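Let's sit down with a protein and look at its sequence and fold side by side. We need material for that, and I hope you will provide a protein of your own picking. Once you have written the record down, we can walk along the chain together.

***
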Amino acid sequence: MYKILFFLCFPVLILAQKQKLKGTVMNTENEKLSSVKIELYNSQNTLIKELKTDENGNFILEGIAEQDVKLVVKNLGYSLFEKKLDLKELDPLNVILKKETQEIEGVVMTKRKPLVKRKVDRLEFNVENSNISSLNAWEILKNTPSVTVNNDVLGVKGSTAILVTINDKKIMLTGDELKNLLENTQGDDVKSVEVITNPPAKYEASGSAVLNIVLKKNKIEGYRGILSSKYVQTQYAKGVFGLSQYYKKDKLSVMGSYYRGLGTYYREGTDYVNYPESQTRWVSTMNRKDKNYNQNTLNFNVEYELDSLTNASLNYSGYFSPKSFGTYNVPTLIYNNQDIVESNYTTINDHRSRSINNSVSFQIDRKLNKKSSLSWISYFTGNNADKYQNVITNLNFAGQPPKEDNFLTKNKADVQLYSTQFDYQWKSDKLELESGAKYSFVKTSSALDFSDNENGILQYRPEKSSIFDYKEHNFALYSSLAYNIGKWNFKGGLRTEMTDLEGVVSEPYELNKTNYWKFFPTFYAQYTTENKQEFGFSYGKRISRPSYSWLNPAKSYYNLFSYYQGDPKLKATITHNLNLTYSWKEWNVDLYYRKEIYPSMEISYQEPNTNSLIYYFTNIEKGEAFGLSLYKNFQVKPWWNIIMSENLEHNENYFKGTDGMLYKNKVWNWVSNISTSFTLDKNSDWKMEMGHRYYSPGIQGTFRISAAWSAYFVMNRKFLNKKLEASLIFTDIFRTTGQKVSTKYANQDNYFLDYTDAQGISFSLKFNFGNQSVKNAKTIKKTAEQDRL
């Protein structure tokens, strides 16, 4: 009887063993496509299974009772793939997707993947598929959804506590140095920009948001290069020229680039300070002109496949600015209460500065088995800068004889950062686990030497000089889990960081030591409907530690009556971010709330006893903001595109004034960025874009910032079978980006007008040489290492 039942069931058992089919999805360029949606329908056209390809483009069909099924493969930007399958066949299935094309008015246009892609924990802006790839990385950030750049300060949804990374590696530069580095990073090297409002546990907890610039990997066999030059004319001329070279052969890939920038930089400003105690008004006009003829950006990267499971890479990046110099001639007029000039003084500031930044990183990635991998990365960054200034002041005060004052300052700063991190990843069809540990050590040393002619002879003043040493150890552990179940995607994580810091001030002596543990939870949820609508929710807790220069208490004088000063007792800022997102047909909506506890920022106050205007970094009580972001890419025609990016926010800052009272600064702030682009020929070699950016009035602590807007125009043309590329760019066409930054409460009444010389025209040329086409990938047999997986 058992034998009869066995022979009756034997065909069914055989079929059950054959209900497993492996497949791979790739495009016509042999690139394997991840996260591609796979659907399986039975003979009644009913959906019976749904899954996505893994990071290597692979998928497995198993546990299917039916024999005759239909396979449907969908991926945005590619034509729909359908095929009837007989699951009795065991041969692996190779699915090749073709890019979608559309023919209009005799012109064949290739549909490209959308510029913006919403993921469960970030927004990805695909730069390589947009007209702005002809710009530099700094200009690309200006055009990135949810990113604002106001007075050269980066912001995401109103917050300026931003961590900038390149390929997930932290950049140890801020301010003008960061801007110069990104301006010398070519847009052709940028693949995408990831806007991570609530960074997952894998990222360090510093900063309220992360902007990760993802650089392209070289996929072309052989040797190729790009020779580029750029001329910029604003108030004064500037230029950039450079060479990028790539080589790839079998297991080895090498990239090296060098760019040199030079020119004269200009900035206009006027300070107004009203002193109600003396009923005087001080007006200083500062037109700053700096020359820098030697800005060098160097990048080198080598990757080698040790075996089919192990990759190693070594990366070096450097920025060298050996000499920036200039002389500021700043006249100041002092008006009495009848608005008559009664006194004046003129400051002549002769200065020069030097900056060097070096970063080296080493990374090893190892596949442990089919589902798990291990990564180890260590990097070292050194930033060395110094500044010298000789300040002469000619005083002509009412009732006093004319007088000349002179002081010298020498500032030196050295920052060294070492970091090492281990990451483990395990991934299946529905689950993904990430876990890791990181240790970092930062050591900074800042010195200020001050000399003046108080006794008629220029002498060193130890009481006005200072040495500040700072050390910080940071140890972190993290773990996160992502789960995909049908239309739902979930991800949650927890990161804990131990921070041990010590700051020592030499004069007057002060020691500041702190040790603390902090926990940083994150959570994400995303739901996708049948018609591709995406609803998302995320929460994250973050910390913003003060920049190292903000902690230096030494008084850095601009002139006799104005100086900048940091605070070694600055507290770290804790930020809570809450986001609700919606995406559908390239509509991206983000409703958000942000709460900041003890945010640190630069503010100013006037001291009536000494008639001084002091700029310093401090913690205000708290900041709160809620708002709505909207981004939409309208593909009006295959050759005509419109992008609209809007952000409306209500922002409140609470701060204690110089009188000890608590004040509230609040505003409704609107940031608008609208652009339109055109493809002017059928080969997509000729493109044009124009647009405008608008910033309504905003706030920062005690500051109220006036509105500003700008218009721009970009023309890009390729020649000689795409080997030669020319770009023409007009920025701030109507010279409308100047702003007024004011402080007015109690006895504080001052403001300054600022214009960063944004109006200009630039012309650039790029020439591609060497091999520019991807060769057909050869079929590679499995190695012994892969067979062990």
Q: What stands out?
A: The domain at 19-97 is CATH 2.60.40.1120 (Immunoglobulin-like). The CA atoms of residues 184 and 259 lie 6 Å apart.
